[in-house]
Amino acid sequence: MKQDNAIEIHNLNVCVDDQRILKNINLQIPSHKITVLLGPSGCGKTTLLRSLNRLTDLYKELKVTGQIFIDGEDILKPRNDIYEIRQKMGLLSQKPYPLPLSIYKNVTYGIKLKGVKDKKLLDYNVEKRLQEVGLWDEVKDRLHSSPDTLSIGQQQRLCLARGLAVKPRLILADEPTSALDPHSSKTIEDLFKKLKDQYTIVVVTHILRQAKRLADHAVFMHFGEVIEQGSPDEMFSNPQSPELKKYLIDGN
Amino acid sequence: MSRRKAIIQYFSQGWMMIALFVILLLPLIIGIALTCKSGPIFRLCGLDELLFSSIWKPTGGQFGFLPFILSSLYVTILSFIFSAPVCILAAIYLTQFASKRLISFMLPVIDILAGIPSVVYGMWGILIVVPFVGESLAPFFNVNSSGYTILSGGIVLAVMCIPYVLNMLIESFKTVPNGLVEATLSLGATKWESIKHSVLRKCSTGIISAFGLGLAKAFGETLAVMMVVGNVVQISGNPLEAGYPLPALIANNYGEMLSIPMYDSALMLASLILLVIVMLINLFFRYLIYKTQKR
What we know:
The complex is a heterodimer. By secondary structure, chain A is α/β, with parallel strands linked by helices. Chain A has a domain at about 100-165. Chain A contains ten helices and ten strands. In chain A, the strands form two sheets. A six-stranded mixed sheet of chain A has the order 6-7-8-3-9-10, with helices on both faces. In chain A, strands 2-1-4-5 form a four-stranded antiparallel sheet, with helices on one face. Chain B is an all-alpha fold. Chain B folds into two domains: about 1-35; about 45-295, MetI-like (MetI-like fold). Chain B contains twelve helices and two strands, in the order H-H-E-E-H-H-H-H-H-H-H-H-H-H. Chain B has helices spanning about 1-35, 45-50, 65-95, 100-115, 120-140, 150-175, 180-185, 190-200, 205-220, 225-230, 245-255, 265-295, and strands at about 55, 60-65. Chain B has a two-stranded antiparallel sheet with strand order 1-2. The longest helix of chain B has about 35 residues, at about 1-35. The N and C termini of chain B lie far apart (about 55 Å). The interface of A and B includes residues 99 and 114 of A.
């Protein structure tokens, strides 16, 4: 296994009954870069992302086979400590889902699960993570109020801070800006560009422009298969497959 | 044409207003009627004596409602203790763990259970619960009991309330978005931690209101409880003794004992007390909901 790949996926298949959602996915995701999974709705991008932190376990009808190596360890092996694996990655979903707790407790939730009780350490983490996502100045006076009072964009950044607090190596983002206004979307995108020095980021999107803006490495998916992948400049200026050509025309 | 539409609009809105008005007026009318009808008994003795005296001798003109009120509360609280954990655990299992097939099988079963007439539950109580309490449970504690006890009432009532409360809990738990559960899991929570912190917390108001409505329903439940509870006027802390809840008092005696002076009025007061307590339970739970929402 090469050192510069954060994730290596070998022959990943996901099936429901007889239907294959993901077909023989082989993929390397480079570390400290933004990898964008691009493709039309229903092409399996989200399922691929969920396989990475085994949220697919929640749906008993899904059958997952293959290997996903993170840190040289196959996370799909059933006996692995799934909680530890999940804490290696922060998840950002389409809509922000703040926990029904105060802003402060939202950020500390994951750390507390790890067993940290030291008040100073918690305080430090809350300030540091909220600063990382640029939310500290906006919420520092109301840390103990409910996140319901925040705007959707702020809530999404809070969810990012919450994910960062467990010190993940990866950030998995599933269409993280689809519920946000353009301004908040840009904030999130800028954050990703800033955060990629410390984290490996995987972003799922169906927005071509966003993929062009963000991607260091682009992966185009169609009907459960990886059609093309490579550097975005090359891929988008010189598409090889008819599927990507069509997508590029429709998307522009 | 537009005028016709305006008229139709005016009247259809009017009808809706009237319908709403009737609903609002009903409890008021019932309350006023019960108060008026129970008026005569207050000439006999004061409210405090009626509520807190334990002497029930209608022929002697002594009407103390305390045994009935306490019996009602006792049976209701017992039923709550029996049913609440079952409801919460079953609702969690059905919404978070169960397969789709089990859910599609269980939901109609719960509806059927909720629709069974209370007299059937009463018969089941007499056939199963009463002998169990009288012949197995009471000897185990070295008590002599016919089986017609507060405990039997509590058990039957609990079984009756479970489908009702369970339905409301399931509806409430279903409103929790999947994304919230996934968010806690992705932060490294176990399944149980995730349920505790996302589902139960998000639904705290739903849980409180389900239990509140369940309690209010249990308090007023008459027939099934009356059939198994023994109907003896006494105050006892022992659940293996018989009791006599308020609704049973009214249902048993109205129309039969009215030759006794003031009995009519006393039963009206019993209904009024029942109404007020159910209202208080509702108000208390409204207050709890208000408090949890504010937090």
